[in-house]
DNA sequence: TCAATTGCGTTATGCTATAACGTGTGCGAT
DNA sequence: ATCGCACACGTTATAGCATAACGCAATTGA
């Protein structure tokens, strides 16, 4: 899926996420974009839906929040599992990928005769700086 | 963490989940327990908090819903990662565990100097019966 | 007995997400 | 050219998920 030109709203949401330190909820994004003319949650959610589809943004299920994809790539290799560490102290989110986990999960799931559509891996805890 | 005697509300919520085919949201549980005297969401959420703490129930982050733990054991080995396949067709949830994934994830996370508190692995897709 | 803890019930509120409606714009087929 | 379609957009209303804050009752242990 090639990434098409982003619309105005999509660009604004993408920009807000890209410039943010950490993940943001849809409503936080909405607040940041009020000055740019955003007035309703749907404007944010519709843009997010597309950005998720293009692989430019990830949804963190355990946070009900969104982050810009940090992969340096051209977003062509959207096959593949994305995992996250999420620091409960500072909110920092780190995205990572690992083929070994991917293959192992894939084998286990196949053994169940299950067809994967989306895999969520999120690790909550504390980063080095915030560790108790 | 030994499992103490459950209170009345905890037992009712546990029972509702245990007898359910699939995952239930807190509000669905509330509706099922109205006849038993439940009136407010907090009654459900408070019971769920304890059941989660005891390891008798899991929360599915990608569904905002809860399932009874299907492990046959005595819930003493609460160390360890739990993973789920979630069928979008029939709603069936299958819980599974794998040491290889656990160790691999653990190593990757340690390399980030990150301390894990809770790991979420959820695979959305279709089970054999529901596959397209 | 007193203080601390835990569970419970209730009301109110806040956060997250989508339904349903209508408008405007670009673009290809007839 | 214009009709029909797909798509993005804007708005209002509503649905669904979760917790704050208050007070009461029962239990326990110093």
UniProtKB/TrEMBL annotation, chains A, B:
It comes from Sinorhizobium psoraleae. Pfam families: FUR. Keywords: Cytoplasm, DNA-binding, Iron, Metal-binding, Repressor, Transcription, Transcription regulation, Zinc. The keyword Transcription regulation applies. InterPro entries: FUR, Fur_C, WH-like_DNA-bd_sf, WH_DNA-bd_sf. Belongs to the Fur family. Homodimer. This is Ferric uptake regulation protein.
